[in-house]
Amino acid sequence: MFHRWDMVAMKQLPDYMQIFIHALADTYEEFEKDLSSEGNSYRIDYLKKAMKDLSRVYLQEAIWGVERYVPTFEEHLSVSLLSSGYPMLHCATLVGLEDINLTKEVYDWVISVPQILQSTALISRFMDDIVDVERDKIKQEEGQVISSVQCYVLEKGISEEEACLEFQKMIKESSKTINEELLKPSSIPIEARKPALNLACMMEVIYKDHNSYNEPSGVMKDNIYSLLVNQVPII
Hints:
0% strand; 70% helix; mainly alpha
């Protein structure tokens, strides 16, 4: 359905999925109306492409899980970096930028998942999987695809602790790559590249010590209250 972007085909899905698809379609239509008046409706075509790519890798992971297929680490990354959702989120972020002119060249760059986006996606995937080692084992038993940590453990013949240490090294290298990509001269405006840094920083907040996405009580709850609820005193 996503690949054809056919909302009629939505009726073939279970009711609970139709609710999600309908809400998503309404959001895209609203974006398209707003952007059409500004001559930027082409941005939605790119966002649809990003969503199609995301749905494709979700499906691949589901197939791997059902078939109990254990991919190579390289195979896993080719899918799981996209399924982190960050390449799609980066594209979605740019769709809403109004203060700069983003050409089709910029969106072609985003859709190609350049090095800076790959690094951000790697940080997202690895930080998530490091703190979710035990949870991911349970998910695997329930029929979901093997995690990147377990995939690395099996391929390299090392312990989970050693794999997580190696992942931490790769996360640091990816952070360096993001900085390098932001600082070097480029035809892509810095405003179009900077969301990669912001998204990577967000992962530090969510997954620094534990999975605050699934368990938001504590630090994450305090952060949300500080951002949205508690008033900042004006001196």
